[in-house]
Every structure is written in structure tokens, then in C-alpha cells.
Specification:
- By secondary structure, this protein is mainly alpha-helical.
- It has 3 domains: about 140 residues, no CATH class; about 160 residues, no CATH class; about 220 residues, no CATH class.
- The chain contains 23 helices and no strands.
- Helix 19 crosses helix 21.
- InterPro entries: Fungal_TF_Env_Response, XnlR_reg_dom.
- One of its GO terms (cellular component) is nucleus.
């Protein structure tokens, strides 16, 4: 029977909901955008050239090195020509409108990647840029809606749509609805023939053939990530297209007038297109994973899961060292973004593949299910490892303005990475809960037994530290943007119950010594404590908005919400374990 929400133990949670409604700022979708609204001229929306150039170049050096959309030299030539014209002509010409639509979406996408020092130097700040970015995307969306339907089947318009989807995910502007647009993109791309090998058209120039290859892979990746995020079936299968990956060349190696493509570089040589090529090598297996886990009649075939897992792990192992290894001293911002993005997408698919097995067979002691449990923990730790940099910087009591406190990829505010950090952290919580059951039998005294116990102790400490990093990540999100309240509260509840259980057990988490006399918390007892902490963070939200952003080392943390269908599955196991 559903419990009465007015019960005393729900009061803290209800207070959080009331306070969140009061503090949550109005978002862009609350602004009226009826068809009769006057469409703003793109020229009037442009910021200063200094800020515009900074944001465009930031996009081109980060996101454009992953999901390829434009030919950089051609775009920059048009961009420079536009500014040198003195803005004395109307932006109603089709070519100029398309150019500015691309630029506005690029700037919006890069707005969450900018550091405070660069923004101040360009005459802007994070708060105002956030609101302006929403206005840019709204204007581009209205402009796309005003284009006649037959005119939308155009490569330039397709580029604008891909940039719009990317930007909506990056700044969390209706990012949850991006799956609708992703499905539409696939249909339009197929109608334009992007899914076919360009060499089948004898009159296709090398320039347009390369652009079509890049754009098709970008559209497919957008659809694939939307499928993993929303839990919806893919709109296409591997057999539906034969478009090959693009060439591993730099954009300067070919131009619109090229009659032949330059020789390809080795895959170990990192170019702006290497990321897309390497990611395409695992595209088939990742599409199979999305198809498997999103079937309406989910049937877990252990052999199929292990085969897909091995293929994905093999693709990860065969990736160039620049995309999978730890950064070196000569690491660049571009390489860091590519590496962070690549590892996130690969481990995201690995966790999505094994998570259903873990949730359905966590208590079954069979080798095939134990392998999924190990893979889940490995993928979760790999995803949470991107928060370790945040933990190190947060320990510094006086961060320098402009410090990058998060890997670039984790500055993205929603959509594409909306629940991956939560699922990774909650999977680690489940693993620790299972370890509590596994450690019921104490080992006999002896040197080897002590070494085994110490090894298990250090592993638990490392796993708990990864959860603490995730909590710090979501705590900052609640405090700075009044988002991810439910995510933070649930994770806080589970962490408190686990931490106190380990502290009161025979093997304390903090090291040697006698067990603590502290009482172990149940979920019912931890719930009001977590809700109260969330309420405190929300109450500090208004004060946080008036602070200088440069004083907050963590204000770049992205927004994450919880997929409601998974919350009961995780909590149910913890509740069952307490009974």
C-alpha cells in the first residue's frame, strides 16, 4: 500500500521539493515561442567578435574533434569573411543564415566548456552566457521550423541540425527530448542517401564524399547515444547502411576544389577525424548492445552478452594509445577531450550491457553472472575515474581562477551523460553491499589471511572513495544549479548505510583497530538525513548565484537526472538486504 506522504519521515523530502520549486530558475522552454513570435535576426544575437571567436575556436578544438560536422578551413574562411564585411548587410540571405546558425549552435555548445578567466577576458561571465546560449538555440530552432520541408533535405541544414542536437545535450536545453530529433535526423539522412557509399555516385567530388561520410557517422552516433540514454530501440540496424568511415586526414589536406583525396595517415597519428574512425570500429558491437538491452522482450542470453563484451573490450584494447592511456606531460586540451569522450562512450556501453544481468542475478553464484558483476564494477570504476581530477582540485583550498577542475567531457551539462555517473556510483554501492554478504565468514588467523583481508580492505576504501567523489560531484550540482536533487539524495542514502555498516563491522573501513560502536543506519533512518542535506544545499543556492564564479572550483559540473525506471531496482536490493 502506498504510504501517506504526510508521514513524519517524508517531511524532509517534501521540504526539498517545495524549496526546489521556489529556487529553480525559469528555463528556456518556459519562454513563449509560438509560431507568431518575431524571429530574431541572427546578426542581432551575435556577441562581440572576441567572445564569438573564442567560443567558436573552443568548439572546433574540442567537440569538432569527436563528432565531425563541418570542414573547419571552409567554415573559418566564411566566418572571417562575414566579420570583415562589417555586418552592414542583412542576414536574410540563405548562405549567411546557415553560417550564423552553425556559429550560434557552436558557441552554445562550447559555452559550458569555457573557463572563467577566458570569459572575463572576452567581456562575459558564466551566468549571462548560460542564458544567452539558450536564446541562441531557441532562435536557431525557430529558424529551422520556418524552413520549407523540401528545403530541409540539404547537407548544410543537416549540419545545423546535428550542431543543434549536440548543443542541446551540452547545455541541457530540453536534452531529454533529443531522442525525438535524433530519430528525425536518421530518417532525413537516409532520404538524402547519406547511408550509402558515396563512391556509388560517379559524379561525387572527394570533398562532398568525405563530408557525407563524416556527417552520416555523426547522425548514427547521435541516434545510438539517444537509444542508450532513453532506453528506446534503435531506428536502424547495421545492415541498413554501407557508408564507410571517413579518411584519417586533416581538413587542410583537402578542399572544395580537390580532385582527389590526400593519402590517409596511419591510425596511430591523431587527427581531427581519428576519434570518429576509431569509434566507428566498435559501432557494430555497440549497436548490437543497444538493440539487446532495449528489446521489449528482454531475454538475457549469457553467451551473447559475453560475446558482445569480449568484442567491446577488444575494440577498447586496440584503440590508439592517445585515446585510451593516461595523459602525459605533453597532453593537449584536444587530446584530453578526445580521450575523455572516447573512454566515456566505450565504458558506458559496457556498463549498459552487463547492468541488466547484475540487477537480475546479483545473488546467483554462477560463473557467468560473476563475470558480469566484475565487468559492471570495472566499467563503473572507469567512468567514476574521471571524477578523480575533481577530487584532487577540490582538496586545494585556494584554486586559481581558470583552473580546469573537471575533464572537459564532464562539463557537459546533460542529455548525453545524464545518468551515467549515477549508474556507475550506484553499481559500486551494490558491489559493496554484496561484499558485505561475502565477508560474513572470517578467515583463520595467519599471514596470508591478513594479506587477503588487507587487500579487500584497500579495495573497499577505493570503492568508497569513488562514491564520495560522485557525491561531491552531485552535491556541487545541487548547490550551484538546483539540479540532480533526487540523484544526490538517493546516492547519499545508500552511501550512509554502507559507510556505517562497514564502520560497525569486524573490518572497519578506516583501517585497523577495534570495531566502532557507532550504530548502523537503515535506509529509513538515512532518508531524512540525506533530504536535510539536500535542503541545506538548495538553501545555499541563492547565495551561490551571487558569488563570483571564479571562487567556485566546481561550478562546471554537469546536470544529471535519474532514470526513474532504474531507481526501484537498485533500492529494492538494499531494502531486501535489510529484511
Amino acid at each position: 500500500m502506498k504510504e501517506n506522504p504526510s508521514a513524519s519521515r517524508f517531511q524532509e523530502y517534501l521540504s526539498v521539493k517545495r524549496h526546489k520549486r521556489c529556487r529553480r530558475p525559469a528555463t528556456a522552454h518556459c519562454v513563449q515561442s509560438s509560431s507568431g513570435q518575431q524571429k530574431a535576426r541572427f546578426v542581432d544575437l551575435l556577441p562581440s567578435r572576441q567572445l564569438a571567436d573564442f567560443l567558436v575556436n573552443l568548439y572546433l578544438s574540442t567537440y569538432e574533434t569527436t563528432f565531425r560536422v563541418v570542414h573547419v578551413p571552409s567554415f573559418l574562411q566564411e566566418w572571417t569573411t562575414f566579420w570583415n564585411s562589417g555586418l552592414e548587410f542583412s542576414d536574410r540571405s540563405c548562405a549567411t543564415e546557415i553560417l550564423l546558425a552553425k556559429a550560434l549552435t557552436m558557441m552554445a555548445c562550447a559555452s559550458c566548456l569555457a573557463d572563467d578567466t577566458s570569459l572575463v577576458a572576452a567581456g562575459s561571465d558564466r551566468t549571462s552566457l548560460s542564458q544567452i546560449s539558450h536564446n541562441w538555440l531557441q532562435a536557431v530552432a525557430l529558424w529551422l521550423g520556418s524552413i520549407p520541408e523540401h528545403a530541409r533535405l540539404n547537407l548544410h541544414v543537416m549540419q545545423v541540425k546535428c550542431l543543434l542536437v549536440t548543443a542541446r545535450q551540452a547545455i541541457a536545453w530540453d536534452g531529454d527530448l533529443v531522442g525525438v530529433m535524433a530519430g528525425s535526423l536518421i530518417r532525413e539522412a537516409v532520404m538524402m542517401g547519406l547511408h550509402r557509399d558515396p563512391t556509388l555516385s560517379p559524379n561525387m567530388t572527394p570533398y562532398w564524399a568525405e563530408i557525407r561520410k563524416r556527417l552520416w557517422l555523426t547522425v548514427v552516433e547521435i541516434e545510438l547515444q539517444a537509444s542508450l540514454h532513453l532506453g528506446i530501440p534503435l531506428a536502424l540496424s547495421w545492415e541498413d547502411f554501407d557508408c564507410p568511415p571517413p579518411s584519417n586526414v586533416e581538413d587542410n589536406d583537402f578542399s572544395f576544389s580537390s580532385t582527389s583525396m590526400a593519402p590517409e595517415r596511419g591510425i596511430s597519428i591523431l587527427t581531427k577525424t581519428t576519434f570518429q574512425i576509431v569509434l566507428a570500429q566498435s559501432l557494430r558491437v555497440r549497436m548490437e548492445i543497444a538493440r539487446l538491452i532495449n528489446r521489449a522482450r528482454l531475454a538475457l542470453n549469457p553467451n551473447e552478452i559475453m560475446s558482445l563484451s569480449d568484442s567491446l573490450a577488444r575494440s577498447l584494447a586496440e584503440a590508439p594509445a592517445q585515446l585510451r592511456d593516461d595523459p602525459g606531460s605533453d597532453d593537449t586540451s584536444k587530446n584530453a577531450f578526445q580521450r575523455s569522450f572516447y573512454l566515456f562512450l566505450m565504458w558506458r556501453s559496457m556498463l549498459a550491457l552487463h547492468r541488466p544481468v547484475l540487477l537480475n542475478h546479483a545473488d546467483v553464484e554462477k560463473e557467468i553472472y560473476s563475470v558480469s558483476r566484475i565487468n559492471c564494477v570495472q566499467a563503473s570504476v572507469a567512468l567514476l575515474a574521471q571524477l578523480e581530477f575533481l577530487s584532487e582540485i577540490s582538496a586545494d583550498m585556494s584554486p586559481r581562477p581558470g583552473d580546469i577542475v573537471l575533464p572537459h567531457v564532464l562539463r557537459l551539462k546533460g542529455g548525453l551523460f545524464q545518468d551515467d555517473i549515477f549508474h556507475a556510483a550506484i553499481t559500486v554501492c551494490l558491489e559493496l553491499r554484496l561484499q558485505l554478504k561475502d565477508s560474513q565468514i572470517s578467515l583463520p588467523p595467519g599471514l596470508i589471511a591478513n594479506l587477503v583481508s588487507q587487500s579487500a580492505l584497500y579495495q573497499r576504501k577505493a570503492l568508497l572513495q569513488s562514491i564520495e567523489n560522485a557525491l561531491r560531484y552531485f552535491e556541487n550540482k545541487v548547490r550551484s544549479e538546483a539540479r540532480a536533487c533526487k540523484t544526490f539524495t538517493i546516492l547519499c542514502i545508500l552511501y550512509m548505510t554502507l559507510e556505517t555498516k562497514f564502520a560497525t563491522g569486524s573490518t572497519p573501513v578506516t583501517g585497523g583497530g577495534a570495531p566502532s560502536t557507532q550504530k548502523s543506519l537503515t535506509i529509513d533512518e538515512a532518508c531524512p538525513l540525506a533530504s536535510r542535506r539536500c535542503l541545506d544545499l538548495l538553501q545555499s543556492h541563492k547565495h551561490h548565484l551571487h558569488q563570483d564564479p571564479s571562487h567556485d572550483a566546481n561550478n562546471d559540473a554537469p546536470s544529471l537526472n535519474v532514470r526513474h525506471c532504474h531507481i526501484p531496482r537498485y533500492l529494492a536490493y538494499f531494502v531486501k538486504s535489510e529484511c
